[in-house]
Amino acid sequence: MFFQINLTKHFLFLFTILLISVSISCKEKPEELIIYPDVTIELCSYFQSFEKEAAKRGLIVDLRNAGIKGRLTKIHGNAVGICKQRGMKEVLIDRKFWERSSQLKKELIVFHELGHCYLNKMHDNEATPDGICQSIMRSGQGGCIDFYTQKTRAELLDKLFE
Q1: How far apart are CA 60 and CA 107, in angstroms?
Q2: Which percentage of the chain shows pLDDT scores above 90?
Q3: Which of 101, 122, 98, 97 is nearest to 112 (CA)?
Q4: Nearest by Cα to 153 from 108, 123, 101, 121
Q5: Phi, psi of 65 (to 5 degrees)
Q6: What is the pLDDT of residue 18?
Q7: What region, left, alpha or beta, does residue 28 occupy, with left being phi > 0 and alpha being psi -120 to 50 degrees?
Q8: CB < 8 Å & 24+ apart, contacts of 73-82
């Protein structure tokens, strides 16, 4: 009887270790962050995500070879992001905006500016009848309201990369 109880405990212990090992090995490994030349580290994951989202839609985007720079800085006026296109292209994002924004808002502004700098997209102020922006490429001056959420993200990115 004693021998049987010890085997049961031993079996349960080994089974638990096996389950933990399988659980750990089956988890997705975090994606390695790509560092882009002349891009502030805070923006790198968004540059990488831009390339990944484009690829999901059949578009090959290579921001590293495009040489687009990116940095956080102070932007005067109402803009929170700028695509500088004279000489080398550069995405500038207002540091104060960045510090107070959610990941989704950060993605929206970086993708918007890369829409200008890489995709050569112009502003698009098309809106629904209730005033919701139909594109992340809105100007901010057109009067439509941003509605970039987890639910609307895929559709808005489809439009960006079409």
Answers
A1: 19
A2: 68
A3: 122
A4: 108
A5: -70, -25
A6: 45
A7: beta
A8: 78/140, 79/140, 80/109, 81/109, 81/110, 81/112, 81/113, 82/113
Q: For residue range 55-114, list pLDDT tens digits in order.
A: 999 999 999 999 999 999 999 988 999 999 888 899 999 999 999 999 999 999 999 999
Section 18-26 average pLDDT: 48
Q: Which two tokens stand for residue 161?
A: 């990369």
Structural domains of the chain in order of their starting residue, each with its CATH number: 41-160 (3.30.2010.10)
Please report the pLDDT score of residue 29 as a whole number.
58
For residues 113 and 81, is the Cβ–Cβ distance under 8 A? yes
Q: Write the CA distances from 96 to 16, 93, 133, integer angstroms.
A: 49, 9, 24
Q: Is the model's pTM score more than 0.90?
A: no
